[in-house]
Design goal:
Elements: H1 2-5, E1 11-13, H2 20-26, E2 31-33, E3 51-57, H3 65-77, E4 82-85, H4 90-97, E5 100-105, H5 114-122, E6 126-129, E7 147-150, H6 153-165, H7 182-190
Parallel strand pairs: 1-2, 3-4, 3-5, 5-6, 6-7
Length: 193
């Protein structure tokens, strides 16, 4: 109904590419989906001797029951080494990510979140607890080196145990990730009408 009240000649989804088909179905203007692009994610060089543990950075407060339940279950079961913390800045998070063997990403709203890109740019491999469908039309991002997927507690523990015990099997993100200036990003986005 919003489109009937406000004129739009196009729509761009920035955070939830899995909604692309649904949004296109319900509105009659071109719709595109791009990963978050107006942010500068801090790049880091990976530690040559990372801490052999799974790291999770994020709040476990009242608004994050799924995340809190998963982290608490992992800690209670004690099957894998896990360190949980919070940070105040993306730079602080990137510093931590680059020091650990693996980073856990738990998307809250089944969407492509900033943490995906923060971890990627830090050079750390990440395990995403969720379905690849959350990438929507951006499925190619799920095949980047250093991206692992799981959607059960047992599968997560098994994957972490395997990777930590076979560290040479870990694929690391490429630190030569292409980036665009805001101007180039806007021009590229507008050219996909």
């Amino acid at each position: 109904n919003y489109q009937n009240n406000e004129f739009h000649d196009s729509v761009s989804l920035a955070f939830n590419p899995m909604l692309l088909k649904l949004v296109k179905k319900h509105i009659n203007v071109p719709v595109t989906s791009n990963p978050p692009g107006f942010f500068c994610y801090p790049k880091r060089k990976r530690s040559n001797s990372p801490i052999k543990s799974l790291l999770h950075v994020g709040s476990l407060g009242n608004h994050h029951p799924k995340r809190r339940e998963l982290i608490q279950s992992l800690l209670n079961r004690g099957q894998i080494p896990l360190f949980h913390t919070t940070t105040k800045t993306p730079e602080e998070a990137a510093d931590l990510y680059s020091k650990y063997s693996l980073v856990l990403n738990i998307p809250l709203n089944n969407d492509l979140n900033h943490r995906f890109f923060e971890i990627l740019f830090s050079g750390a491999p990440q395990i995403i607890f969720g379905e690849k469908d959350l990438l929507g039309a951006l499925q190619h991002l799920g095949n980047l080196p250093g991206i692992y997927w799981t959607n059960s507690l047992e599968e997560l523990e098994s994957l972490v145990s395997f990777l930590l015990n076979n560290h040479k099997q870990i694929n690391y993100p490429n630190n030569n990730i292409p980036t665009l200036s805001i101007k180039d990003f806007l021009l590229k986005s507008l050219s996909h009408k």
